[in-house]
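Format notes (please read before filing issues)

Several people have asked whether sequences and structure tokens are stored in separate files. They are not. Every record keeps both together, in the order shown below: the sequence lines, then the token lines. Line labels are part of the format and must not be stripped during preprocessing.
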Amino acid sequence: MTVRVPRRSNRPPARCGVRGAEARHLAEGFRALRQLTENKPLPDVPVTLISAATGKKRSGGRQAQIAASHRRLARSLPQGRHVWAEGSGHMAPVEAPEVIVKEVRALLARVSK
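Then the structure lines:
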């Protein structure tokens, strides 16, 4: 007898596994950053966090959680800045390269003062 377990996604099974691994990797990275900053604050340097625009449009889900984490981290840093990569999803450097270039240039201008 074969038992079928319903999937929670319309994506193929291999894709679901990748997304799960990606979510675990992100969670581990955020945990490591929290642990690092609990004992010692990050240095007072300009930091720009760029969030995918999909995180702004959704009230729940992983993208919204990541964007909320970006906003919190930016607010916690003396020179932190948070921007939205309009027109982008997960791959902002590919989907909205102009935002990345603009923000890198702005960050370099802040450092060069």
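For reference, the curators noted about this record: Strands lie at 47-52, 80-85. The chain has two domains: 11-40, 43-112.
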